[in-house]
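Researcher: Re-running this chain for the archive, since the previous output was lost when a drive failed. Same request as before.
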Amino acid sequence: MVLSCLRLKLIVEYGGERLLRKQGACFVAIDMGRLERELMQMSAEGAPGLEFCEAISELAATGRFAQLHEVLPEIVYDELWGRYKQDPAAFVAGWHTLGEEMREGFVQHARERLTSLTRLQCAGNGSSTLAWQEIQRALDGQQNELLRTAIALELLELVEPAVLRATHLRECVVASPSSEEADRYLDEATRCYFFGLFTACAVMCRSVLEEAIKQKLPVGVARQVRSRYRNAATLGSLLHEVNNNLKLMGIDGDFPALANQVNDAGKKAVHRGLLSEDEARECLQKARQALQVLLRN
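Model: Regenerated structure tokens:
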């Protein structure tokens, strides 16, 4: 503790930047490339592929397909059986070829499978385009190791951009609290921004202001708002009420302008298209400023 305090004193009094460069070992440097390489190595150590696929190809080729029923989940077995019946020879050859591919590229296949869960998939594109998905489901079994690897790689790619975005923000310090729900909305809005979900970020910014305003409404005004808008007041509606009751609510006159900018960004996100990173950052910053103004007292 004494040494830590002395080091801090030296940093403050004698030029921290030079000392920090010399004492770089006191910081934990995280090499994201190294993490990704180690993850790939861990995945490769237990990589399924050639033997598994050759076994299925061999069982199908020798008329022992039914034995797969004992080791595969029923839904996977049924899907493979249906494809085998359509063209047994193509099924056997396909599994042999895909086994070779899977040995080298099973992680990439898993990432493609993960992406397919986030997109609309058109019916009738042909069975060959989904063949690797059969293998993924069969190899994963009940453990989902391939999907776990794919998701881990996706998350690693988010780290550096999230770090950079986090540097654009500071703590949102307010004089009085709002509500647990408002905190959750702000948490989700901020994390959406960190991880590149920019349109969702703007939508959640609008939600946090809606909740914070509701918490500030006097009892009588709150009752009128619930009745007038049938418990479905939007941020625009709430801002209208705020403008009409600024003095009664004791709200700073700077708040409506900030909140209106957030509302405009939220409406664009919902009705007019996807937001850019800059638009999301500006919306989040305005929302946080608005909260600080709203919760001054």
